[in-house]
Amino acid sequence: MGTNWSARTVDPPADVDGIITAVLARVIAQMSNWEADSTVSRFNRLPAGQWMTLPKDMLTVLNAALDMARLSGGAFDPAIGHWVNKWGFGAVTGNIGADVGLPSPWTCIQVEGDRARRTADVALDLSGIAKGFAVDAVASALRAAGAANFLVEIGGELRGEGVKPDLQPWWVDVEPPPGLVVPVLRVALSGMAIATSGDYRRFRHIDGRRLSHSINPATAAPIKEGVASVTVLHDSTMMADAWATAITVMGPEAGMTLATRHDLAARLVLRTAEGAREYMTPALAAMLD
Fold first, then answer.
1. What is the 3 state secondary structure string of 86-116?
2. Where are the alpha helices (DSSP H) in 98-222?
3. How far apart, in whole angstroms, are the C-alpha atoms of residue 108 and residue 119?
4. How do residues 160-209 score in pLDDT, each as one tens digit?
5. pTM summary value
6. CATH superfamily of this structure's domain 158-288
7. How far is CA 107 from CA 119, 211, 274, in A?
8. Are 160 and 172 in contact (CB under 8 A)?
9. What is residue 197's three-state secondary structure?
């Protein structure tokens, strides 16, 4: 899925590498747009209107993604795959679909039971939530194998369980956006997850502009320059991942207002002409006190 993973285990079960890679292989086989035979790739090739039975993991992620789309007013949209490709951030180059102009691609995805279908020429891209799900799935597999103390990371999304050998929690420093001076955000992960979305991880420069990989579904284009990073803590890595994406697209005012309304622990760093401007929800401020 175009990223790396790591895991630190205090009490590793036998064949810990095999346990982790088996989980990740399952997620890739279902939700990677970079694999032509993955479930999501085959789903996107089906004629509009044709139903497909989805495996359990992908169904879980898709339902969560559609819930986040509704909650965020479409700022998080799992069906913008054609636009991701158009702007050069997807598995293929160029816009291959006919969905430009659709105001809310996610509304063209229907789920009934364990089946789903596209009602128009849109393409699922679950990259804004699938990494978080994969972290949770690895953590679940490690717990099932008897591990109680570990830290799992995939592409900057992390989940900690238990404690380190010195009985300290898993302390994590959030990476600051390059070129900006912001206070160090250090959090303890114990039964907690953290996800960060940033414009410095995947971007392109075109005509002097920095184009973020985060696509605004309202404009079918990369978000405007400004939001450097969004960090969200949650008990679900999947939801932390999705929330970080949604807040990034919504921006400091609307995004952080929604995060505060839902009592999320979140921080947004904005690039300005004067430097960094930091926004923090009350829930995160209370956690850091």
1. HCCCCCCCCCCCCCCCCCCHHHHEEEECCEE
2. 130-144
3. 5
4. 999 999 999 999 999 888 888 899 899 999 999 999 987 666 555 555 55
5. 0.92
6. ApbE-like domains (3.10.520.10)
7. 9, 26, 40
8. yes
9. strand
